Amino acid sequence: MKAIKPTAYARFLNALDSLDRIKPGSQLDSLEQQILDYVYRASVNQKQLLVGDVIHLEQFGSQATLHARLKNLVGKGYIELVEDRVDGRKKSVQITKKAEAHYQYLSECMNKALKP
Questions:
Q1: Residues paired with 79 in a beta bridge
Q2: Positions of E strands within 1-116
Q3: Angle ∠(86,90,93) on CA atoms, nearest 5
Q4: How far, in Å, CA of 103 to CA of 108, rounded?
Q5: Residues 40, 95: contact at Cβ < 8 Å?
Q6: Closest by Cα among 35, 106, 17 to 74
Q7: CA-CA distance, 54 to 69, in Å (whole number)?
Q8: Mean pLDDT for the chain?
Q9: CA–CA gap between residue 100 and residue 98 (Å, rounded)
């Protein structure tokens, strides 16, 4: 097997792998990570995101699949569903401190990976 020089991306993947070994119970599957990324970007852009907005994202799967994944993310502590004070039928999707810490860790992994 030919040895290749590790790239910044390879170092980043190694750092992510270490996260999975440190906290195996909080591991997200790829769809959950994509949904969490979507919610995180909305939060960073100060856009209110409702449950209905998320379960209508066809690129991630069916409504039933998305609803189940949202429940998983709530159960794992990455998001919370906050009931609207005016209209109780509406629930906004918000990231938690755990999700913020997750993205902070990912940022640190990226910064370390970029250093040769």
A1: 95
A2: 79-83, 91-95
A3: 120
A4: 9
A5: yes
A6: 35
A7: 10
A8: 86
A9: 5
Q: 3-state SS of the chain?
A: CCCCCCCHHHHHHHHHHHHHHHCHHHCCCHHHHHHHHHHHHHHHCCCCCEHHHHHCCHHHCCHHHHHHHHHHHHHCCCEEEEECCCCCCCEEEEECHHHHHHHHHHHHHHHHHHCC
Specify the amino acid at residue 109.
Answer: C
Contact at 8 Å (CB) between 51 and 70?
yes
pLDDT digits (tens, 9 = 90+) for 56-89: 988 888 999 999 999 999 999 999 999 988 888 8
Residue 90's alpha-carbon distances to 6, 26, 85, in angstroms, are: 47, 27, 9
Strand partners, 83: 91
Least confident of 14-23, 29-38, 47-56, 88-97: 14-23
Structure tokens that stand for 48 in this block: 């209110």
Query: Measured between alpha carbons, how far is residue 39 from residues 20, 21, 23, 88 in Å?
Result: 21, 25, 22, 21
Question: 47 — phi, psi (to 5°)?
Answer: -105, 125
